Every structure is written in C-alpha cells, then in structure tokens.
Amino acid sequence: MTLGRVLRNGTLTVLAVLWLVPTWLLVVNALVPAGSYSGSPHWLPRDFGLFDNMSQAWDRARLGPAFGNSLLYAVVSALAAVAVATLAAFATIVMPVKRQVLWFWVIYSGTLLPLQVFIRPLFLSYAETSLYDTQIGLVLIYTAIAVPFAFFVMRNYALTLPREVVEAARMDGASWWRVFWNIHVPLSRSAMIAVFVFQFVAVWNDLMFGITLTTSRNIRPVMAALADLQGNYSNVGPPIVLAGALLVSLPTLVLFFSAQRFFISSLKMHH
Amino acid sequence: MSTPTTDRRAPAVGAGPSAPTDGARRPPATHAWRGRRERLTAGAFMAPSVVLVALFLLAPFVWTVHRSFFSDTRTTPFSWFDNYALFASDPALSRSVQNTLMWVVGTVVLPFVLGLAIACMTDAGRFSRLARLCVVLPYALSGSAVAVVWNFMLTADGAVNQVLTGLNLDSLAHGWLLTWPGNTVVMILANAWQATGVAVILFLVGLQSIPPETLEAGALDGAGSWQRFRHIVLPQLRPVSIIVIGMSLVNGLKSFDLIWVLTQGGPGRATETLAVSMYNETFLELRPGAGAAIAVVLTVIVLAASWLYLRRQLDVKGV
C-alpha cells in the first residue's frame, strides 16, 4: 500500500464515521424505550423499544392521520403532475405549436421562484374559497408546484425520442390523442417513473405549505405533524421524537434505495 | 376514439364552408381549418399545465410583487419603495441578510468541496461503496427530519455536549443554538450533512462520463495522479461543477424547513435567513407588505443564482 492510498483511506474513514454518527444516534436512541431514557444520548443499543416508540408517536402525537394524508397528497399530486406535464411536453415538442419558447417559459418559470413568493396570496385566496384546511386544496397546490419541473424533465426527454414513428403514425391518419397514448406514453415510461419518484419525495418532504394552508390534525401532512412533535420535545422525550422522525422518513428511504436508478437518471435528465 | 378536442371542434365545423373530414388526407381547400384544429388540439394538451401554473404560481407571484409596494398601515396606501427601505433600517432584516450570505457561502463551498473529494476518493471497491453510502444516506431524509436529528445532537443535554464533556472539554460545551453566529454556523453544517450526498452522486455521474482512454493517455505521457486530476479530470467536470454550485446556491437560499424546525428563526430572530424572515414578517409579525418585499428580493437573488446554471443548460438544449 502506498502512502497516498493510506492517506486516502484514512480521510475516507474519518469522513464516513463523521457522517454516520448522527444517523447512528438517530437509530440507537429511537430504539431506547421511552421510559428508560436516562436524559443523555445512548451510544449503544440495549433494549428494543422501537415499535413501542413508533406507535406512541403514531397515536399520541397523531402522526397516524398525517401519514395517511401525506400518502394521499404525494401519490395523487405526483401522478397528476406527471400526466399533465407529459401532455404539455408532448404538445410543445411533437405537435406543431407556435411560440414554443413562450409556452416553455410560462410553464417552466414556476420552478424558478421561491415558495415564499406564493404563500400569502395562496393563504388568502384559500381562506376566501374555502379551500383552506382541505385535502383538495393541498392536492391542488402540490400538483401545481410539481408541474414546472415535471414538464422540464418530460420535455427534455421528448426531445430525445425519434420523430419518425410519430410522423408515420400521423401519415396513417392516427389522431394526436392516439399518437400520444399509444406511442408517446409507452416510450416515455421510464422518464415518467423518474419524475413520479422525484415529485413524490418533494411533496412528502414539504413543510411550508403544510403549516400554512392547514390547521387541523386530520388534514395536515406528515412533516407539519413532525414539526409539531419536535415542538413538544421536552414533554414527549427524545426517543419518541426520534422514532417519529425515523417513521416519517421510511417511505422516502425505501423509495430512494429501491428506485436509486430512477433518482440518478432523473438527476441526469434535469441537467 | 375520443379526443379531448371533440367539443372544441364543433364551432369550427358549423362556421366553415367545408367541414374538415377525419384523417390526414384532406383537400387543400381545408388547409387553414386543419391548422386551426391542430392548434386547438395542442392548446387542449397544454391547457391543464398552463392553467395550474398561471393560477397557483404566476398569479400569486404578481400579487406579491404588487403588495410589496403598499405599506402595512391600516389603510395600506401606495408607498413606493418604503418596504424595501426596511432592509436598511430594520436590524432584524440586516441580520437576516448577513445570515443569508453565510448560508450561501456555506451551502456552496461545503457540499462542493466535500462532494468532489468523496466522489474522487472512492472507487469501485467494497469499502469505498460503504463509505459513500454513509454520506449519501442523509440525502434521503427530509429537512424536518434532519432538524430533529440535529436538535438531538445540539441541545444542551445533546450528543455534542456529551462528547465534549466526556473528553474533558467542558468549557467548549454550550447551548449551540443560542448564540449568534455559532447557531447559524452549526445549522449550515447540519445542512451540509444532508446536502453533500447529492453532490457526491452528481460528481460520480460526471466522473463516469470521462473516457478512461484520456486518463490512460495522460498516465502514458508521465503525468502524476495530481497532474491527471488537475489537467484532465477537473476540466471535464466543469459542467457538473456548475450544476452542483448552482443547485446548492439555490437550495441554500430557499432553505426553510431546517431553520424553522430547529429555531423558528430565533432566539430573538437571530438565525433568520430571508426565506424565514419572509414567513415571520407575514404570518407572525403581521406585516405582509414587509414580507412581500422580502419575498421579492429573495426572488431576484434566486433568479440571478439560477441564471448561473440555466444559461449553460439552455444554450445546450437550444430552447
């Protein structure tokens, strides 16, 4: 082993251990039974109280309903955004549309703006139209916020698809809808899955719309519930809060590692 | 076959001298009608996206810009740039600007340097893959979950103070989130803990796209490993680097969840960045005009930062 190699592996080990410590403490202390937590962090697992802590977070801190809500918001919004964005991408790339650049910017511009710039007008008009604190209200804003980026990825993907198939189908008299459904969608499937995964995670992880546009416990999404649980840190105790954080991260962790391929391909497509 | 354009076609059929027939082979006289029908179909395909974005994103944006020119007194008269002048006069806002600058530097430098180093140091070996996994893992957590983890690390009886006490460094142990600028620095570190993972992934993708022949050729010409890195690898990573910098920059400017869950911008508004200040001014201090002005300033900065990597991207894609 050369000196360079030793140095490299040493640095790498230090970095990996540094990175692992918070993750390790999260898991170990979420395992400690809430009753026997001594007041200072545990470094080694002893008793196994994880499921008990999780169920306490689920019931007492009301993560349960929030979990179901977020599942609904993330699945429905991500699906809707993928569908709507694929249609628009098909129109701007495959169909003969005038002012393509204009339409691109109209749809894409939404992803460049920070969320802060939308939040108060949305809050006011939601209150006005009784969309405030409703599931449909959250699904709508999550879909809208997901569309620009989904459109961007689907559009870039559509640029790479061969035009000949579409032209042949059109010559044979197929309608645009038929071309879209029978040719474009099957060809775009992998990009659509990547966008779905990406947007599912984005909606699942959102906090700001959750705390601004909802108030009741059976409407709010999961990150708003977690923030609430964290606010009760000293009452509930660290093991239950950490178990709660672990619980709400499970869906994205599972998605991330089972769909890593799609994650990376969507990152590649983004750029 | 039902198309979304069926009902939209009806008026055109009624008004026209020759109703467009189905199919692509139509007489030349109906050419204009065909073009119009195609445009309507394309419009129907784009309409859901355009309506959603215009209604939920662009209209609120215009509303906020408009609101930023009206003061927060009861009658809300037009007040030109008074809300923007708050940046000069309000000490909480100046602190917020300072913090935002610290965040921008921290979120650009740390993930970039660490991500590049880790991506270059790891190879295909098993140990390397394990080390990489440790770094990438936090990327799968949400900002709120990261805040919960780091609160556990940083509170008075948290893990960091426990370690310091264990090493007989009691004097260093303190409430990490209580004093400025230390609290902003530790939150930037917490953010880097999460954000480095994505930089590693992007740099790995970039490294894989470098053809191995160029490296071999460099080695044959007698270039050392540092020279190969400096003159072959680094130039080829330029496009990925711009993306990593641009993305970290924008994410740093937008970061809200971590700060909100850890400190809510406190104590005494000391850890606010512009993204958090906007929320506090609008919903807690009930000064929507000031909040709108902050949102607009943040937007301008984010757009300028996005331009950094968008310009390149749009050149390539040729929009």
Automatic annotation (TrEMBL), chain A:
Gene Ontology biological process terms, A to Z: transmembrane transport
InterPro entries: MetI-like, MetI-like_sf
Location relative to the cell: Cell membrane
Transmembrane regions: 12-32, 71-94, 101-119, 139-158, 179-204, 240-259
Domain ABC transmembrane type-1 span(s) in chain numbering: 67-259
One cellular-component annotation, GO: plasma membrane
Membrane topology classification: Multi-pass membrane protein
Entry keyword set: Cell membrane, Membrane, Transmembrane, Transmembrane helix, Transport
PROSITE patterns: ABC_TM1
Family indicated by similarity: Belongs to the binding-protein-dependent transport system permease family.
Protein name: Permease
Automatic annotation (TrEMBL), chain B:
Domain (ABC transmembrane type-1): residue spans on this chain: 97-309
GO cellular component: plasma membrane
Subcellular location: Cell membrane
Protein name: Permease
Biological processes per GO annotation: transmembrane transport
Family note: Belongs to the binding-protein-dependent transport system permease family.
Lineage: Bacteria, Bacillati, Actinomycetota, Actinomycetes, Kitasatosporales
Keywords carried by this UniProt record: Cell membrane, Membrane, Transmembrane, Transmembrane helix, Transport
Membrane topology: Multi-pass membrane protein
Region (Disordered): 1-33
UniProt xrefs under PANTHER family: ABC TRANSPORTER PERMEASE PROTEIN, INNER MEMBRANE ABC TRANSPORTER PERMEASE PROTEIN YCJO
Keyword field contains Cell membrane: yes
